[in-house]
Amino acid sequence: MTEPTLTEPNGVTPTVVAGVRRSTRLKELIHREGSAVVLNGPSTVRVATLMEALGAEVIYVGAGNVLGGILGRPNDSTITMTESVLIAKWYCDALSIPVWIDVDAGFGGPPHVERTVRELAAIGIAGMTLEDHPFVDAGPEHRAGAFVIPLDEAVEKYRCAAEVRDSIDPDIQLAARCGALGAANGGGIEGTVERLRAYRSAGADISYVDVHSLDELTALRDAIDGPLMTGTAYLARDLLASDAASLSLCAVHSRNPTHLLQKLERATYSAFLSSGAGAVRELDARLSVVLREMGLI
User: Fold this and answer.
1) What are phi and psi of 180, to 5 degrees?
2) What is the DSSP string of 68-97?
3) How far apart are CA 155 and CA 161, in angstroms?
4) Smaller CB count within 10 Å for the chain: N or C?
């Protein structure tokens, strides 16, 4: 049997217990041994409810693919905090499983982070990702991810987020997404480790790094204590369940299937606009044959 990759649900159906906060459930999942949480960002609330019905444990509201997709905006620091909170509330209201949101750089400095955490806690968010790149990009050479903010400034933002979180709901999971590994001023592996240790000391629960190889991921795992997660966007291949288990990863942010959904949408509306509803029915019939052959419907 082919080993499942971590772009697939891991087969564990969440137990919903009356009275247990979703943040507490997410904390339990993060500290579960032997099985990483698979994070994926459904482009609409309707898709999120479908994912929950199919066994997804957590829904990830990403800044680019979810917030940007709904608002029709690029992920360029123009999506606001209030827009992000409103959209996250739609997901929280519709789902019983934990919702985790990417707040990018926290919409500014510590005061903006303070309000962001407070607003998100009020709608029942279970987890949030806060990044250490500059909030506003000065130009092409300072685009998001190209540089990281000074360490002391980043630590202050994570400390602020953790203090506000602790005053409201200590179980909300705070992931420190460190961009130093690919940043011009990041210091490579050593700089990344230094930053992640400082972020954990400031109150972050999870160390989050986007790696380009399993060797980088292994080096980070050897150097960093506590929950560690990664994304798969820059890896040459999908992570296998065994990869995550051997590295004791708490979560994996998998490649989003948005490109496939966009391809299907383009084909559907192209058929409709060029040839009418009959062409859509024919497309539906042909796709249904393929999906049945694959055992997906």
Assistant:
1) -65, -30
2) IHHHT--SSS-S-HHHHHHHHHHHHHH-SS
3) 10
4) N
Looking up tokens 């099985």, which residue turns up?
35
Task: State the residue for tokens 């989050």.
Answer: 208
Is the pTM for the entire model greater than 0.85? yes
| Burial class (CB within 10 angstroms; exposed 0-12, middle 13-18, buried 19+) of 163 | middle
Q: Same domain for 145 and 262?
A: no
CB 220 within 8 A of CB 189: yes
Output Rg (C-alpha) for the chain, integer angstroms: 20
Distance in angstroms (rounded) separating the CA atoms of residues 175 and 181: 16
Q: Are residues 93 and 132 in the same domain?
A: yes
Whether residue 13 is contained in a domain is answered as: no
Q: Which two tokens stand for residue 242?
A: 């065994």
Domain of residue 277: give its range.
257-297
67 in Cβ contact with 87 (< 8 Å): yes
Same domain, 66 and 213: yes
Please give the distance of CA 233 from its chain centroid, rounded to a whole number.
11
Tens-level pLDDT at each residue, the chain (297 residues): 455 555 444 333 333 444 689 999 999 999 999 999 999 888 899 999 999 999 999 999 988 778 878 888 877 778 899 999 999 999 999 999 999 999 999 999 999 999 999 999 999 999 999 999 998 753 333 444 579 999 999 999 999 999 999 999 999 999 999 999 989 899 999 999 999 999 999 999 999 999 999 999 999 999 999 999 999 888 988 888 889 999 999 999 987 787 788 889 899 999 999 999 999 999 999 999 999 999 998
Query: Would you call 36 exposed, middle or buried from its count of C-beta atoms within 10 A (0-12, 13-18, 19+)?
Result: buried
Q: 10 Å Cβ neighbour count for 267?
A: 14
